[in-house]
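Listing S7. Sequence submitted for prediction.
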Amino acid sequence: MEQYIEYIIYGVSPEKDWTDYAATVIALAAVCFTIYQVMQQRRHNRLMVTPNLDGVTHEDVQQNSYVYTITNNSVGPAILKSVELYFDDVLMAPEKLISDMVVEIFPSLPRGNFGHHVVAVGSFIPVGAVIKIVTISCMGDLTPDEVKKTLSKRTRLVLQYESIYKDVFYFDSSVD
């Protein structure tokens, strides 16, 4: 049996011209631009879910009441990681409630004249949520303005919270 060669493969090196280099430069520029776009998109995504907690006081002179609320007025939910409550610059024990502090600060105020909300660690504060931390119905000589001044001097609420990207933020009622 005879052997014969069916194919002969040989290579020829083409001449290089400027278009080869231009294509390489254009491809490299496209890769760099894509990396830049991805970085900007990630930055944008983080900003779109950044929570922002704000403390707001409401003094209703006609109703003779004081309300302190925390509002998430951002575009992303807040995940609460820690709650610290200070009374006369001393960190309170976790089991001590806001109601106990109100009784200490305003001993003449009946328990039925105030309410509070306990914010739980690990809770999820959605966008637009308003949490009433404390509501006090004033009586006698006690005015909403006096309640505000007294509470702002003697109490402080510090919350540590994070976004869904795990970026950490702090809320401090003394900074309002």
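Caption to Listing S7: primary sequence and predicted structure tokens for the chain studied. The radius of gyration is 32 Å. Helices lie at 18-48, 98-105, 144-154.
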